[in-house]
Structure formats: structure tokens, C-alpha cells
Design goal:
The protein is of the alpha+beta class. The protein is built from nine helices and 16 strands. It starts with 5 loop residues before the first helix and ends with a strand. Its main location: membrane.
Length: 462
């Protein structure tokens, strides 16, 4: 058996609730209509009897009944003497005259198919002689009214239930229309594989609209992720193909120069350089893959940024001297931060870019200063610079401003700045760049100094 849809369940539940309410209302009407109608009729009957008492006059030792109305508004009035003998008035047709009188009591008498409401009043204080006043009214008219009301309810309630069911179905149909649109969009994406499709629901501004916008936002993220993955795979394949082609070419060349040790050595040196490039590229790719899956672990500990920076600068000094580049430093002493030491060293290797693209006989300035709770750093050079159109792209993976400038010895693959940006952001900092072609480039970054917030020597990033 096919399970009921949510729309059907809501419609059935809503209709059942309405039917239950209507049944309760019908039961209340059936139970209370008699009471209400009889109570009202009883009040009228009593008022009529008391009005008769006020209209009776006792003149010259006898009763004057000339002003009395013995039938008014369906109520029959009859007058009895002390011995309960009828002396004036009339009895309704079909009413038994043998019904005993009971002072100030309401009686319900059935005579044949007719039900009567009877009220008797014994009056002994107004006149020298006591009288019984009886009022009689038929209940059949009230019962007919009750039956008429209930009949109308019985006829109308099914239509009201059907109307409620139809209205509930329309409401749920309209309410779940966006859900159907979401399902259709998901099915279209599944069938076509086109992640550019969107629900684009607007106007309702309700929970379903929020769901649709969240779904669209999720699709934006998925499409962007797939685009990055495709681009990443394509770029990685391209970057790996180049050194592999060089290695294969020099291997084949080296095999043809077995009798020429110098040429063989040159070929092996090129192969070694390309292997190092591939190793660096694979290492960077592995790190970026871990960051994408949020599985990269950073071991936070208290480190001396000043010592690390001076150590990295000393290591790069030989490379800088090969291009006669002077490195100027302005580094505060004992800059203590809580960070991952390996990542911080990789971050400072941004100096390699400054040296690689620096001007012959140029300069590089490295500054690290304490400012309140942050360490502010900058690396500036007077090298070739970066065009303004390229600045927003330099953080993208595999992006290189001018790949044609690369030499065989250059092991860069356009991943360094992407890794640097991730390191800065993983430490809660920020990084920015300014550059003018032909004048140089300035990188500024900040790292929060959180050392006083931690007491443990080593902290795991969560």
C-alpha cells in the first residue's frame, strides 16, 4: 500500500478535526436546544400567569373577569376556585381536565402525541376568596423548532465539512508547492548533472522560502566546489605533466649519451630539479587537499616569532646574494605567539617570492612589530610588481602572473600564496597585498598574539 503524502495527511487531519468540531457543536445543540427553548417558554408561561393575577379584580363581593384574555401567544389560561373546580377560562383541545394542580410548579404533561407545559399558581392573599390560576402551553411547537434547527445543522454540516476539506487541500497544495519545486529542481540536477539550476523562490518570505534560499545557497557552494575541484584537477595534471615530460625527455637523452659523462650528468641534474619540483608540488597538493577536507592538523604551541623569522632570513640570504638583493629587517625582539611552528616557517617563505621576482641589485624589507594583541608583519620589495588585474587572482591555486618567466630551475607551481592565505586565516589573522608593476610589491599580515590566553605548552587545533 502506497504511503499517504504529507499533503494528504494534513488534509485528512484538518478535515477530521473540523468534522469532530462540527459533531461536538451538533451534540451541544441537540442537548441544549430543548433546555433553552423550554426555559424560555417556561418564563413566558409564568409571566402570563402573573399578568392574569394582576388583571383579576374583586368588586362588590364578586370577581370581575371581563378584562382577561384566556388565550394569548399560544398560552391557554384557566381559573379554578379553592376546590379546584374550573370556573373561567378554557382548556386546550386534547388536554385532560383531570390533571391535578400543584402550586408554583412547572409540570410537563403528555396527552397523546402532544406534550404540554403547565404552570399552576394558588393565590389566597389578594382577595377574600382563593383562586387557582393555570397556564397551559404546547411544547410541540418548541420541539418542531428544535427539530428544524437540528435538521438544518445535519444538512449544512456535511457541506461545511466538504468545504473545510477542500479549503484545507487548497491551503496545503499552495503551501507545499515550493516543496514540489525544490523536489523538481533536485530531480533535474540529478538527471542532468547541471549544478547551475536554482529554485529561485521568492515572495512568500516564510519557512519554506528560507528553506529554498538555503537550498540555493547550498547549490552555489556545491557548484563552486565542483568548479574548484575540476580546475584543481586540471591544473594539477598540467603542472605534473610538465616536469614528467622534462624528466622523460632528459632520461631518453641521457641514455643516448652513455659515452658522454658530462651530458649525462647535466641530464641527471635536470631530472633531479624536476623531481624536487614534483615533490614540492605533491606536498603542497596534499596539504591543500587536507585543508579542503578540514583534516589538516595544526599543533599550536608557544613560539618565538622573532627567532623563527631571523632563522628563515638567514637561510634565504644566500639565495638573495646570488641576485645581489639586500634584505633589511626591523623585527621586534621576543615576539611570542601561539601558533603552529611549521606553518609559520612556511608562511615566512613568502620571502622566496620576493627574491624570485626581485630586481637585480634590489632590496627587500621585512618588518615584524607588536601592536596591542596582534603581531603586524610586512614584506616589501622593489621587484617587478603585479598588475592590478592580477592582484585578486594571486590567492587562487596554480595562478601565476606570467608563467613564461619561469625557468627550468623554478620549482614554484602557483600554490604558495594559496597556502600562505590558509595559514594566516587558520591562525585567525589577515593578509593583504599592494603592488605596482615595475615598482614592487608589499604584503601585510597580522597574527593574533594569544600566548597569555594559554597555559599549556602544546595545543591541538580543533
Amino acid at each position: 500500500m502506497k504511503p499517504l503524502s504529507i499533503k494528504t495527511k494534513i488534509t485528512v487531519w484538518y478535515t477530521g478535526l473540523i468534522v469532530l468540531i462540527l459533531c461536538i457543536i451538533l451534540g451541544i445543540l441537540a442537548f441544549s436546544t430543548d433546555r433553552i427553548l423550554v426555559f424560555e417558554l417556561q418564563r413566558e408561561l409564568e409571566d402570563e400567569v402573573y399578568d392574569i393575577v394582576e388583571d383579576i379584580q374583586y368588586v362588590n363581593g364578586t370577581f370581575d373577569f371581563h378584562k382577561l384574555k384566556y388565550f394569548d401567544d399560544g398560552i391557554s389560561i384557566s381559573i379554578y376556585n379553592r376546590e379546584q373546580v374550573l370556573i373561567k377560562g378554557l382548556l386546550p383541545s386534547g388536554f385532560s381536565s383531570s390533571v391535578p394542580l400543584h402550586n408554583n410548579q412547572i409540570q410537563t404533561i403528555q396527552s397523546g402525541e402532544v406534550h404540554w407545559l403547565v404552570y399552576d399558581l394558588y393565590v389566597s392573599t389578594n382577595w377574600p376568596e382563593a383562586l387557582w390560576i393555570r397556564g397551559i402551553v404546547s411544547l410541540n411547537a418548541s420541539y418542531e423548532t428544535r427539530t428544524y434547527i437540528l435538521l438544518i445543522c445535519v444538512i449544512l454540516f456535511p457541506f461545511l465539512a466538504l468545504l473545510a476539506a477542500f479549503g484545507g487541500w487548497l491551503i496545503t497544495q499552495k503551501a507545499f508547492q515550493p516543496v514540489s519545486l525544490i523536489r523538481k529542481t533536485a530531480a533535474d540536477i540529478e538527471n542532468s548533472g547541471d549544478l547551475s539550476k536554482r529554485i529561485q523562490l521568492s515572495g512568500s518570505k516564510d519557512e519554506i522560502d528560507d528553506l529554498a534560499q538555503t537550498f540555493d545557497h547550498m547549490l552555489d557552494q556545491l557548484e563552486l566546489s565542483f568548479q574548484k575541484e575540476r580546475q584543481f584537477t586540471s591544473d594539477a595534471s598540467h603542472e605534473l605533466r610538465t616536469p614528467l615530460s622534462v624528466i622523460l625527455a632528459h632520461t631518453e637523452y641521457g641514455l643516448t649519451q652513455r659515452d658522454n659523462p658530462a651530458e649525462t650528468a647535466d641530464a641527471l641534474q635536470v631530472i633531479q630539479q624536476q623531481a624536487k619540483k614534483m615533490m614540492a608540488l605533491v606536498s603542497s597538493l596534499l596539504l591543500l587537499a587536507r585543508t579542503d577536507h578540514q583534516s589538516a592538523q595544526l599543533d599550536f604551541e608557544t613560539v618565538n616569532l622573532s627567532e623563527i623569522a631571523n632563522m628563515v632570513i638567514d637561510e634565504l640570504m644566500i639565495t638573495a646574494q646570488s641576485k645581489n638583493i639586500t634584505i633589511h629587517t626591523a623585527i621586534d625582539d621576543n615576539l611570542i605567539i601561539v601558533a603552529d611552528q611549521t606553518s609559520i616557517m612556511r608562511l615566512l617563505l613568502i620571502l622566496q617570492n620576493a627574491i624570485r621576482y626581485g630586481r637585480q641589485n634590489g632590496w627587500i624589507k621585512v618588518e615584524l612589530h607588536q601592536l596591542k594583541e596582534d603581531v603586524l608583519g610586512s614584506i616589501e620589495d622593489n621587484g617587478i610588481g603585479i598588475a592590478s588585474d592580477d592582484l585578486p587572482q594571486i590567492w587562487n591555486r596554480f595562478y601565476q602572473v606570467d608563467p613564461s618567466r619561469k625557468s627550468v630551475e623554478d620549482t614554484s607551481a602557483g600554490l604558495g600564496l594559496s597556502i600562505v592565505k590558509w595559514i594566516i586565516e587558520s591562525h585567525g589573522g589577515q593578509i593583504s597585498v599592494e603592488s605596482l608593476p615595475g615598482q614592487g610589491t608589499l604584503f601585510r599580515f597580522s597574527l593574533p598574539n594569544r600566548s597569555r590566553h594559554y597555559t599549556n605548552k602544546t595545543l591541538k587545533r580543533t
